[in-house]
Amino acid sequence: MSGTPRLRSAFPSTPQTSQKGRFRTSNNGTPIVGENVGTPRKLQDLPSPAKPSETAAPLIPFDIIDAPSQRFYVFSVYVFLFAYRLYDFYNLTVDEVESFWLFMKWVAFDGVFLFLLPAMRIPWLEWNVGTVLLLFFLHATLDGMLMFRIPLPIPALLGALWKVFFDDEMAITEHKVNVGKLLHNSSVILGKQIINILPEGSAVLNPKKEPFCLDSTVHQIQIPIQINQTTPVLIEIMRIDLETMQNETISISASATRKLMKAARKSQKAASAASPLLLHYPVKKTGIYILRKVLDETKLEVQPKRSDVVVVTCPQASVRPTGDSRCRNELSNVALEVEGTPPLRIKYRTTVNGIPREASEFQSLQPEDFVSPLTKHETNALVRANEEDVSWAQSHKLMVPLNETLIKSGKWTYSVEEVQDAVGNIINYVESEEDEKPRARSDSLLQTFTVHERPTIVLDGCDSRNPLRSAKGEKARMPVRYGSTAPGKKAIFGPAHTVEYLFTPEDDVLPNGGHSLTAQPIRTVLETTNKQPIISDAGLYTLKSVSTKYCTGEVLEPATCVLQHPPEPDLVLSSQNITDKCAGSPIGLRVALDLIGTPPFMVHYTEHKKGDVPRPKRARMTSLRGQIDLTPPAAGHYTYTFKAISDEVYAEKSLKPELVLEQDVKPSASAHFAHSGSLETCIDEAASFSVILQGESPWTLEYDLVHSGKRKKHHVKDIHDEEYTIHTEKLTSGGEYTLSLVSITDRQGCKEFLKEQSTINVRHERPKAYFGQIDGKRVIRTLERNQVQLPLKLTGTGPWNLKYKTPQKVESQRIYNANDFITTKEEGIYELLSVKDSICPGSIDENAKQFDLAWVPRPKLKIAETATTIFEGGFYVKDAVCEGDEDSFDVILSGTPPYEVSYEQHFKAKRGGKALGQAKKDLKSALGLASVRTDTSQSGFYEYKFTRLGDNNYDHDFKKFQPVVLQQLVNPRPEARFNNPGKTYSYCSREAEGEEVIPVTFTGVPPFYLEIEIKHHGTSKPETVSFPSITSHSHNLRIPHKKLHLGHSNISIRKVRDARGCTRKPPTSSPRVQISVHDAPSAIPLEDRNDYCVGERLSFQLSGQMPFSVFYTFNGKQQKAQSPGTTFRRMAELPGTFTITGLKDSASECLASTPANNPLLTKVIHPIPSVRLSRGLESRVDIHEGGEAELLFEFTGTAPFEFTYTRSTNARKGVKSKVLEIRTETSYDHSMRIRASEEGTYEVISIKDRWCSFAKATEGTAAGRGQKLLTY
């Protein structure tokens, strides 16, 4: 708030970042600060902002390309250069000159790249000169080795890397094991015991420096007392009252102390009685609590640390109510009331129209000249020796005024969110997500008021140049227009407006047009903005103010208006006769009017002919003089009575007395047409005109009919009616006729010449209708349901009413254009029936009255029926074929090419089964016949469904097209395969006769015909053997013994055929089997020992044909292993007995059994000994000086055991542990106990038993000493 005054002790007005979630609540319910907030201490100055770093800007700014992207681009360029380097290396010839130039080229490229890279100043790539030089020399060395073809030890490097990352070997349980994990098993030596020598007992009050407070909701708190290495029987606490400054001593007895310790151990679940305990002592009064004395169970006084607890009244805050209404641009005038131990901090938030602003806060709120030790002390003591003035901890009430300009109307809310006292107690009034139910916010925590817009007022339509006029004695509305300061200046609806204005009577207005000293102030209240002040007296009115019940407003210009009362209207008449020149008789009156009032005037009078009803009339005058000619059309006695007059100000005012004029009128003869304008008619028809006659009957009328320069006169006598109809003869010629009234003679013989005439337009011909042509004919073929416009040709004068017949009904249509269309979508013959234009009925041209509309036929599709394709059951069926055979069918198309056909190919495993695949295909054909190739790549049931058809004219219409379906069965080709492809069927040399059995599996329909091919090693021509009539799907081939030769032979399937006639010839690369005859293999151990440890390797030398199958038992379980070479090696993963029982090589199926009692092929694997210190866990033991702790060692393995353990310094943060001593012990049992009284960390580093040993990797020792077979 820019306009809010600040206390002199407050920080700047920048809103602070909310630290919601920073505070927590203690077990006693008192708000306390969280772990990241320390003990209240001296308030320091705000830290100054750090200066920006002096790091040079990158060559390419990060707002164009960020740092990661720049690094990526550099890496991409480096990868490209390296790939280009390898490309040159690949194309390198043996020419040394070329090698030299390539070497120089890449040295230059690497130098430019590496030395320019730091200039880019990209983070992580800003290398110093030494690094760049080192990289350059490494790249130059690589360039020399590549370009001069110096061989690189790549295989050795890859082998070493493989051993580092993939150090797995096959174990005797026939699965891969990681040698490193097996040799360096961390579970062999487990456990660690840490012995701490405790200091003397201690006690401290409030060790965590938590704040505490009491209020109306928190009546009791629990202050913490931490004891260590002591069992107190008496605790004395001194309390200083904050109001009276009096001291009191609180003694906690032994029984109360035991209860506190029991509750502390239960809540903390301490593992040892010597662990520090946190006692919670309840208090219900505010004050400063100081720990004075602690006695342990030996009656010795424990020296307590200097500490205290300040328990104050909880801080609170509220917003003082100051009314619920404000006006725009006023000050907010809000005050925050804060109570608590200063200096205080308060946080509040302003919400405008439901939109919260950023929270603001005041800090360091305290009374004038207030000094608190919390802002100055540098030790933990808040009460110093002999000083018991604790008035600084008393609660104070402070007022914080808030004043800001209310620049926006609407609902404003000031709410308190948080208050904190000097001790650190925080009261948060804002709901958080951790609250189980919403908090009930007190009304005192927020102040809500409404900011109203200010009204405005201005005169609209009245100023010094445009006075307001009203009739005498009548009231007028002051033309005020309401507005406001709201956007758009809209008027304020709702509250009443109070308007004040000055009034000076017309006679008292000063000569300069101003108000006199006796001007009257008038105040009026208007309930709505539709109402205006009512004024009646003539004079000067000036608006002075406007207000609502909330706000005063502003008077805008113009604000002054003059009200005038003009004189009432009146008139004076004078008249003279208007006479006929022939008869000399009067034909009317000419009346002159002299008017008084405000123009324009309206004179109201009546005209009364004797014998008739009076007719009211009026005349409008725009000036103070006017004239009226009263010339009635008929003869008679007329009386004119002037009854009233009105002007702009006064409504109709009666004339008293009424002014009356009388006259006998005899008008002269005259005649005119009843209807003016021309007349149109058809040829060969007569025309009629009505003529109105005036004067004294009977009359004689003369008129002429003129056409084509010829005039024909007509004379009609003794006309007694005032309206006469002239009927012409039939007008047989087209063109324009003119009927002119020539003269009229009345009873007295006065003849008056006339000028009236009317025109007759006679049509030269009658209208006609006929169909136009499209492309020279009245027949059209169009696409189905396409909208077609049939051309119409019409003559005459529009609009025309046309009746025609469609293929379904007779229709009528009003046509406005002579070249119009009939729009339709239906095919058939259209015929015109009749036509009539705006004047005459017409005729239809018999030769062009019909139009034929036909549709272009839609395309059709069918499948050609042949001997292999028939139609049955609503679809086409094609003969079955074998898988992979070529087949097709023809599709016959009719329509307009080219054609577009879409069909779906469905694949099913069998007829009626579930679809396994679907493909949509398109077919385009420029002819009426298309060939579709069937899919025989996979056996099964195929269905071809033609779903879409379109040609050059029509797109596909699913409503018009019926899908066409063709079905075909594709039989699978038979298949024969060896059950064990690639297997070598071996024969032992001692087996003399007998056919070998080779299992073969068939697929297809039996019986089968099979041909196999036998190729012997060393011969070029294979032998063929046939097996006809195989009736089952599984068959054991017995190779005739006469077909077998010593050595190796390959057997492959040459051809197979099933009962359907389908044949399959496997490719030459198809799987095959081998047969051979060999001697039995043998195995010999590589080491002359029978005892091994877990982690060692068992190795045997094998003789025979690689690879070998080794059969052995491990712990009574039969195992089979494969050995690709002549050395069989396995890692001893588990302890047990290993014995090789048999051996088989790849040459034959002969199993060479070994004697069960052969000691050379039986090995005993011993387990690795293990040791557990402190049950294998890390335990901590705290003892007093001079005490002892027990070290328990537990062993597994074969006794005796020899182990080495160390004592090192206990680990501390930032200090490296150091080995203090190393000891070696021997145990003939599986457990051993050793007493220790020295502080340190005890752990075992090596162990060995009767057979094996293990050493733990420690600093300064090799990590891989692993296991070792020992001998005692």
UniProtKB/TrEMBL annotation:
Residues 566-667, 882-972 form the Nucleoporin POM152 immunoglobulin-like domain. Residues 1-52 are annotated as: Disordered. GO terms for molecular function: structural constituent of nuclear pore. Residues 11-30 have a biased composition (Polar residues). The chain crosses the membrane at residues 72-87, 99-117, 129-148. GO terms for cellular component: nuclear pore transmembrane ring. Residues 454-561, 766-849, 1169-1253 form the Nucleoporin POM152 Ig-like domain. Residues 66-151 form the Nucleoporin POM152 N-terminal transmembrane domain. Residues 202-311 form the Nucleoporin POM152 first Ig-like domain. Residues 1081-1153 form the Nucleoporin POM152 ninth Ig-like domain. Keywords: Membrane, Transmembrane, Transmembrane helix. Pfam families: Ig-like_POM152, Ig-like_Pom152_1, Ig-like_Pom152_9, Ig_Pom152, TMD_POM152. One of its GO terms (biological process) is protein import into nucleus. PANTHER family: NUCLEOPORIN POM152. This is Nucleoporin Pom152.
